Amino acid sequence: QVQLVESGGGLVQAGGSLRLSCTASGRTWNRYTMGWFRQAPGKEREFVASISWSASKTYYTESVKGRFTISRDSAKNTIDLQMNTLKPDDTAVYYCAAEPSRSSDWYGSRLADFGFWGLGTQVTVSS
């Protein structure tokens, strides 16, 4: 089992940056594919980015490519999401997700791909 706790959310003006972190605890967490999802008010939860167990593969939804970067630090049991050039449309609750890796390069992108979730952190981007 893996327990996930997100941090780093907040209020930022459009064009600004935020860095989200997810701290994981549990057995052999470094063999988990990790991801970030978000849910805006009145909308379904959607995929943002994911990173393979080996960190060799990353995958982003089209709307954040070139602005967001996902990374992981196995020594610290954390994954980060660096978010730059934020837009009001990025406003949402951001959730960290994890799933035991099927292979070192598997990264996942669907809600159903991930079985462990954090409680989320709010990101608000003002115009």
Number of strands: 11
The major sheet is characterized as: 7 strands, mixed
Helices and strands, in N-to-C order?
Answer: EEEEEEEEEEE
> Which regions are unreliable across 5 or more consecutive residues at pLDDT < 50?
none
What is the helical fraction, as a range of percent?
under 10%
How far do the termini sit from each other?
40 Å
**What's the overall average pLDDT, rounded?**
94
Shape: globular
Structural class: mainly beta
Share in β-strands: over 45%
Total number of helices: 0
- Radius of gyration, CA atoms, in whole angstroms: 13 Å
SSE topology sketch:
Blueprint (H helix, E strand, L loop, with lengths): L1 E6 L2 E4 L4 E9 L5 E8 L6 E6 L6 E3 L7 E6 L4 E6 L8 E9 L15 E2 L3 E6 L1
Structure description:
The protein is mainly β and 127 residues long. Helix content is 0%, strand content 51%. The protein contains no helices and eleven strands. Strands 2, 4, 5, 6, 9, 10 and 11 form a seven-stranded mixed sheet that branches. It has a four-stranded antiparallel sheet with strand order 1-3-8-7, with no helix packed on it. Strand 7 and strand 8 form a beta hairpin. The chain is globular and about 40 Å long. 35% of the residues are buried. The mean pLDDT is 94.
